[in-house]
């Protein structure tokens, strides 16, 4: 794993797979996928991963805002959508988002059960940060193949939200599992029940990943600097407990 600068700065950018950069914030990370002079972002970052700061960091390693032409949104929670509008204004990138999370992204989702606490957090954050829904260019569905990075297949992973999605590169056998689970300080765990629409569905979503060839591993949005292959093993451990 290649580190590009001091661990105390935020965001930091590290290379976690060939042509794949992890943009590390304090709590939430996102990704930049390089492909012949083009960059696709997975999610838009949160708080310490503001577009202006992230672009400056990318420029330090030889990239430019004009290379960013696509942004894939994994789901509609604000820690993944907060900066999408600014990213679009700065880069003109096309934004692809899950159709089943449209109400989340537009800020009108009706939270129920334990997830009502998540709704309180979301409403507070939208007010505090003056959130405005971004313009979405394309609402994708499960099993579609998106035209980036050699083709990324949408893997529906409902539970965290109904539209929560993973992105699978069949050629690389690498999966962006996003918020399916988290891994910090050597320990993995499912998202807290109050952040999920259906914690039971998360288990169903996770089990179907075991059918995929994942030689290169799994990448997450909430994790330490563990390798993708270790995170793939962690998924197996979680399901066996």
How would you explain this protein's 3D organization?
- This protein has 241 residues and is an alpha/beta fold.
- It has one domain (2-240): Ribonuclease Z/Hydroxyacylglutathione hydrolase-like (Metallo-beta-lactamase, Chain A).
- Helices cover 26% and strands 27% of the residues.
- The chain is built from seven helices and 15 strands.
- The chain has helices at 51-60, 78-81, 84-91, 102-105, 116-128, 199-209, 228-240, and strands spanning 2-3, 12-17, 20-24, 29-35, 38-42, 68-72, 94-98, 138-140, 145-146, 152-156, 165-169, 174-178, 182-184, 187-189, 217-220.
- The strands form three sheets. Strands 1-2-3-4-5-6-7-8 form an eight-stranded mixed beta sheet, with helices on one face.
- The longest helix is centred in the middle third of the chain and has 13 residues, at 116-128.
- It is globular, with a radius of gyration of 17 Å.
- The protein starts with a strand and ends with a helix.
- The model is unreliable at 1-8 (pLDDT under 50).
């Amino acid at each position: 794993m290649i580190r590009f600068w001091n661990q105390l700065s935020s965001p930091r950018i590290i290379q976690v797979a060939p042509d794949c950069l992890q943009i590390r914030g304090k709590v939430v990370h996102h990704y930049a996928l390089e492909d012949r002079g083009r960059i696709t972002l997975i999610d838009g970052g949160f708080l310490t991963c503001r577009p202006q700061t992230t672009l400056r960091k990318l420029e330090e390693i030889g990239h430019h805002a004009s290379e960013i032409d696509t942004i894939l949104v994994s789901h509609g929670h604000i820690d993944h959508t907060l900066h999408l509008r600014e990213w679009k204004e700065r880069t003109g990138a096309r934004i692809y988002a899950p159709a089943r999370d449209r109400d989340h992204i537009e800020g009108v989702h009706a939270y129920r059960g334990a997830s009502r606490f998540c709704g309180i957090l979301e409403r507070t954050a939208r007010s505090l940060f003056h959130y405005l829904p971004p313009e979405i260019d394309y609402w994708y569905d499960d099993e579609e193949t998106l035209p980036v990075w050699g083709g990324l297949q949408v893997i529906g992973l409902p539970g965290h939200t109904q539209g929560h999605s993973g992105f699978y590169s069949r050629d690389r056998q690498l999966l962006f599992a996003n918020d399916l689970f988290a891994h910090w300080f050597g320990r993995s765990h499912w998202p807290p029940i109050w952040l999920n629409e259906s914690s039971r569905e998360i288990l169903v979503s996770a089990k179907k990943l075991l059918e995929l060839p994942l030689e290169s591993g799994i990448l997450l949005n909430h994790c330490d600097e563990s390798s993708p292959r270790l995170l793939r093993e962690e998924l197996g451990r979680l399901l066996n407990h």
